[in-house]
Design brief:
The chain has 55 residues and is largely without helices or strands.
Amino acid sequence: MEIVMFPFMQIVANRADTKDDNGEIISNFENLRLPIGPTSLKEKQLSSKKMERKE
């Protein structure tokens, strides 16, 4: 049996650039992006051992 996990996270935010009275852009929010996040955690390989019963 294989367990598959999907750890998805998403951050969403919108903000328009602001313009002055002449219509020129005075901010740069539109092209601002978050950096690429860290890589996924590596899964540990699970193992099992067969135990013998002592009587």
